[in-house]
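Hi all, long-time lurker, first post. I run a small reading group and we've been trying to get comfortable going from sequence to structure in the token notation. Rather than ask abstract questions, I figured I'd post a concrete chain and ask someone more experienced to write out its structure so we can walk through it together at our next meeting. Sequence below, copied exactly:
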Amino acid sequence: MTSSGGKKWDHMFKIVLVGDSGVGKSNLLSRFTRNVFCTDEKSTIGVEFATRIVKMDDGKLVKAQIWDTAGQERYRAITNAYYRGAAGAMMIYDVTKQITFQNVVRWLRELRDHASGDIVLHLIGNKVDLVADSENAREVTVEDGMEFARERNLPFIETSAKTSVNVEEAFLNVVKQIYNQSFSSKARLDEDSGVADLGVVEVDGGGKQRTNDSKCCK
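-- Answer (accepted) --
Happy to help. Here is the structure in token form:
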């Protein structure tokens, strides 16, 4: 397949970001696709998307088309339609706001209702930069996130769009799991033998911090 700009890729996956308004979905998207962080964050209106080409271990190129869905209640009727056709979803909460973590259950339910049954789901705890200097700012512990994910067989990682901590890993883990689930030799062998293998990736919440110059997005 070839894009209008002449860039070739082998597969394209639609990935949606879901979560309450203000958890940092837009900044995670811009950090991964453009290495940009906007300090003057504005709420997404409806749906926006950006893309990035990712090279798999076998040399294949995957175009990740990542959709940023608005978290506000009034846009839910619009964004529900965008769940359809999604190969993966990142359910995002703010580690400093307990209510955003509690609402992950609602987002998970919406994905189950509107997305395909084999969609790859990952849990993301964002804004760990806010608790770097003071753990008192944290309302959702790492253990809380890990337990929630373990009970539902979800990969889990904590990130910071501001400092880039684990952002690359979070997105690449989703893309790689979708790819492995769809195209790996093991997946094909299991499919031929009638064995379902979802290729669940175990993700560690740790990781080294990588600092990048901040630029404001549009």
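A couple of things your group might point at:
Residues 11-192 form a domain with the Rossmann fold fold (CATH 3.40.50.300).
The first helix runs from residue 25 to 34.
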